[in-house]
Design goal:
Blueprint: H1 2-13, H2 27-32, H3 36-44, H4 60-75, H5 77-84, H6 87-119, H7 130-157, H8 162-189, H9 192-215, E1 217-224, E2 227-229, E3 232-234, E4 238-244, H10 251-267, H11 273-283, H12 288-309, H13 312-321, E5 324-325, H14 333-366, H15 371-374, H16 379-402
Antiparallel strand pairs: 1-4, 1-5, 2-3
Length: 425
């Protein structure tokens, strides 16, 4: 009930429009968020971005700050020390992440307000002066920090990862409207309920494939040496290191989408026929060159992000320090090389599958599916939905088993994801 109550507060807050804006004149802003990066931000915020809500910027600034801190933990010794300090280091990192979130919001909020002035008529603003900008910046910053606080309370008092659940709820909030639009278009354009049923069957198999991608692991056996301390024996058992087929999650898709919009933006500043044609080609989200470049970037970023987040040398050192070894592989450098080789081999099919899932919405749109509903056939939204649902189900299963209930499944087990913060992706 705590989780549901906090989610209800979040959904109610996303409907509250910024003070000083006429909510009946937001049609242009809604049209701007139909596709592209703004459409993705609007989906993650559960429609708050298009509603000019006090929570319009949502949780994404916190996610951006978490990613920055995670990358700094790879390159900056100070953050590396904090990561090794355990609980105290984690609290310090969380505090720095919150400060960085505020800094990001102080830059993003004025940009969002400037976009409101560009998209909405002057009559939509009660007061369009500098006082409105300052007040709205403070409100948007406070709104996003409140969303972050709600996510942390869900993690502490409720079930599941709060930040991940808030993103998932935002995506699910768009599903009824997308489904209704698809239903109406099928009745008007032909095909009727039969085509809608076929679309649901295809969507079911797409979800099956996404589950395989999220949960796919290669288990590397690890043997620990026997140790006798007093009258007790430690070690001597075989365990496994689960190396994920898609260790990068949805981050390659997000990076690739950001890169894909850079040339389109630059082409808009050049007044030439070639630049206009280039922008037209890469603005066609169902075109060959856009999707080919998009898939290629995803494959590259999958290898890049996996390389900076998975450290085989550190894994080998930790294993050696704890008396563990991979059967048939020498401890130390050879173990690190073996783990690096395994990660390279399983990342290749994982990156191709991830790229295929990312461009599936383009195939759905070519098949005549409504653009908003097609977003649920692949891409970031699909992978987040699948990952968060599996993670939440796994935590519910753990709570049930701890209290000696049967659990959610009569046989087998639910495997969720790991991590928090940026791992919401």
């Amino acid at each position: 009930m705590t989780t549901l109550g906090l989610i209800l507060i979040y959904r109610l807050g996303s409907k509250v429009v910024l003070p000083g804006i006429d909510p009946t004149q937001l049609a242009n802003l809604a049209a701007q968020t139909d596709q592209g990066v703004l459409g993705l931000l609007n989906m993650f915020s559960g429609g708050a971005f298009a509603n000019a809500s006090i929570m319009a910027l949502g949780i994404m600034p916190y996610i951006s700050a978490s990613i920055v801190i995670q990358l700094l933990g790879i390159a900056v010794p100070y953050f590396q020390r904090l990561q090794r300090e355990g609980e105290s280091g984690r609290r310090k990192i969380n505090q720095i992440t919150r400060y960085l979130t505020v800094v990001i919001l102080l830059f993003q909020a004025p940009g969002y307000i400037a976009n409101l002035h560009a998209q909405l008529p002057e009559s939509a603003f009660v007061n369009a002066g500098w006082s409105f900008t300052v007040m709205s910046t403070i409100i948007l910053t406070a709104g996003s920090m409140f969303v972050m606080w709600l996510g942390e309370r869900i993690t502490d008092k409720g079930i599941g990862n709060g930040i991940s659940l808030i993103i998932m709820i935002g995506i699910i909030a768009m599903l009824p409207f997308s489904l209704f639009a698809e239903f109406v278009s099928r009745l008007e354009e032909g095909g009727g309920l039969v085509m809608l049923l076929i679309e649901f069957v295809v969507l079911f198999f797409v979800f099956e494939g996404a589950i395989l991608l999220v949960q796919g692991t290669r288990r590397v056996p690890v043997q620990y040496a026997k140790r006798i301390v007093g009258n007790k024996q430690y070690g001597g058992v075989r365990q496994y290191i689960p190396l994920k087929v898609n260790a990068a999650g949805v981050m390659p898709i997000i990076f690739a989408q950001a890169i894909m919009f850079i040339p389109i933006t630059l082409a808009g500043f050049v007044d030439s026929e070639a630049a206009t044609g280039f922008a037209a080609v890469f603005s066609n989200f169902t075109g060959f060159w856009y999707n080919f470049s998009f898939a290629f970037l995803i494959i590259l970023f999958t290898y890049f992000y996996t390389a900076i987040t998975i450290n085989p040398t550190q894994m080998a050192d930790d294993m050696k320090r704890n008396g563990g070894f991979i059967p048939g592989v020498k401890p130390g450098k050879k173990t690190a090389e073996f783990l690096d080789s395994v990660m390279s081999k399983i990342t290749l099919p994982g990156s191709f599958f991830l790229a295929f899932v990312a461009i599936l919405p383009a195939f759905a749109m070519l098949a005549g599916i409504d653009q908003n509903f097609a977003q649920f056939y692949g891409g970031t939204s699909l992978l987040i939905l699948v990952g968060v649902v599996l993670d939440t189900l796994q935590q519910i299963e753990s709570h049930l088993l701890m209290r000696h209930y049967d659990g959610l499944l009569k046989s087998g087990r639910i495997k969720g994801r790991t991590g928090g913060g940026a791992a919401a992706f």
